[in-house]
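Hi U.,

Before I forget, here's the chain from the pilot set. I'm dumping it here mostly so it's searchable later in email.
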Amino acid sequence: MKISTKGRYGLRAMVDLALYSQKEQVPLTSIAQRQDISKSYLEQVFSTLRRAGLVKSTKGAQGGYMLALDPEEITVGMILRALEGDLSVVPMEDDAITNRIESYIHDNIWDKIDVKVFSFIDGISLKDIMDDYLKKDPAPMYYI
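Structure:
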């Protein structure tokens, strides 16, 4: 499994959103500035996250984005799956594996790696990241 720029930037932007949207909606421009990510790239990322039901948006002068769920309900796995799709180390081919050794390796190595990775990323919520980050950097800067 290799996480693309979309997944890495998306996770960073979601943590930023979780930190700064507790009281009000956050414009993408603010996230783009704080995270040094192109606003147009973030528009693509947030469009995908909105379709996945992880963020909600409001248009207009006072518009912006907020989390669609509480931070403790959104996991790293949910974000990465929305942005990356299948996260399997070696996805099962469409046609069933007919080679017995390959089938054995898939079931006993690749699938076991997937279980451990999925367990890890599904066990970390945005709230966990926020809490740990705020312990290390207790005063996030607010941009207006």
